[in-house]
Amino acid sequence: MRELWKIFKKGIISENPILVLALSLCPALAVTTTVQNALTMGLSVTFVLAANNTVVSLTRKWVNPKVRVPIYITSIATIVTVVELLLKAYAPALYSNLGIYLQLIVVFAIILARAEVFASKNKIIPSFVDGFGMGIGFTVAMVLIGTIREILGNGTFFGMQVLGDWYHPALIIILPPGAFILIGYLVGISKIINEKQDKKLKLQGEAK
Amino acid sequence: MKEYLMLFIGTVIVNNFVLTRFLGLCIFFGVSKKLEASIGMGMAVTSVITLSSMLSWAVYNFILTPLNLTFLTTIVFVLVIASFVQLLEMVIRKLAPTLYKMWGIYLLLIATNCVVLGVPLLNVESNFSFGKSIVHAVGSGVGFAVAIILMASLREKIRLADVPKPLEGLGIAFILAGLLSLSFFGFSGMISL
Q1: A138 vs chain B: nearest CA distance in angstroms?
Q2: Is-contact B73 B121, C-beta < 8 A?
Q3: Sorting pLDDT into bands at 50, 70 and 90, what band is B13?
Q4: Taking a C-beta distance cutoff of 8 angstroms, is the pair A134, A17 a contact?
Q5: d(C-alpha A207, C-alpha A175), whole Å
Q6: Contact: A112, B112; criterion CB under 8 Å
Q7: Where are any strands of DSSP class E within chain A?
Q8: Is B83 part of the contact surface with chain A (CB cutoff 8 Å)?
Q9: Residue B54 sits in which domain range?
């Protein structure tokens, strides 16, 4: 159980796909203009990651290593198509907000990377947990970026007004340049936090 | 003719794929450390996008639409493009080794990439004709090349600057991209698509 918790936790903090590994950046910038879009994208990716890791882990004994990448891609594409059709049917407004980026989940580096690095070598349950943790880490980062951008750029949170009339929204944050600059600073901040933690762990290790 | 020209300029400058639509960011940040590599990458991306747009246009209009299988677009495009790029790599390695040295190594890197899959998907979404698809594809490739070459030149300069430690590397690269994107924003409204 503790092992599983460890696997789950690393996706959220020390190996956060967006902020630390800098993988799958396109969506982090493109669909974080509102919290709602960011959350939908995050949950879709979480679903795809967890499902794909499970499938890859289930079939790991039969897949010939020589053709593994095309097989992984087919499996990812199938799962993405399922998500796409579901969203199109039940939440058409969200679907059109995400636009082409939903289909592009297929080529997100993080999904193929987890299949290759983790799921193809581990049992089903750890693989599922790994995918789920990475997905949640992705979602947390997306929602964080979405929150900052929506509040600063529009004065709202989930569409509700949070800042009063006195606040003049800084439109730049919603526009592409603001997204780049914001992520730049976030990457810097997460670097500082991770370095501090590493130091702490090192000190603890020496004390023992 | 005018329509095509507008589409071309629109995709190269106004709706630059990297700087306003955020497609192809992984290679944009990964490869832009050196100017030489950026030029090779720009050429590889342009040619791959153009060829795979043509191919996927044909697949969509002659196979998927008549058979009513358009819901499979994503899967089919990914597989078609990935296998096509592999094939292209093999052919170039065999027939033109000098060309392969110049940009062949980048081909495999972009076999499954946002921008290479994104352009054909956008072509289908906007119902472009064959000619327009090609113009759109070439435009996005050239736009990508312009962005990555500019970025690489900036990053080569910034290496000499005294950047705050936590922002070194990826952080400052993002901020640079933001400033670059800001300057491209000056073009918006020049052409409305």
Answers
A1: 16
A2: yes
A3: confident
A4: yes
A5: 49
A6: yes
A7: 156-157, 160-161
A8: yes
A9: 8-185
B167 contact residues in A (CB cutoff 8 A): 184-185, 187-188
Taking the CA of residue A46 as centre, how many other CA atoms within 13 Å lie in the half-sphere pointing to its CB?
21
Looking at residue A50, its pLDDT comes to: 92
Cβ-Cβ contacts under 8 Å for B75 (sequence gap 6 or more): A74, A77, A78, A81
A177 contacts B166? CB cut-off 8 A? no
What is the Cα–Cα distance from A78 to A89, expressed in whole angstroms? 17
Strand, coil or helix: A160: strand
Comparing CB atoms, the residue among B113, B114, B178 nearest residue A177 is B178
Residue with tokens 């799962």: A79
Number of neighbours of residue B71 by Cβ within 10 angstroms? 12
Distances (CA, A) of A115 to A41, A75, A79, A174, B125: 20, 11, 14, 33, 30
Angle between the B130-158 and B2-9 helix axes, to the nearest 10 degrees?
30
Among candidates B82, B117, B178 on the partner chain, residue whose Cβ is nearest the Cβ of A184: B178
Q: Which two tokens stand for residue B181?
A: 């994107």
Beta bridge partners of A156: A161
Placement of tokens 């070194």 in the chain:
B168
- As a whole number of angstroms, the distance between CA A108 and CA A20 comes to 16
Reported confidence tier of residue B19, pLDDT bands at 50, 70, 90: confident
| Domain contains B180 | yes
Does the predicted interface ipTM exceed a cut of 0.85? no
How many structural domains are present in chain B? 1
Identity of the amino acid at B8: F
Given a contact cutoff of 8 angstroms between Cβ atoms, the answer to whether A128 and A136 are in contact is no
- In this predicted structure, what is the pLDDT of residue A23? 65
CB contact at 8 A, A68 and A120: yes
Identity of the residue numbered B120 = P
pLDDT for position B192:
60
In a domain, B192, yes or no: no
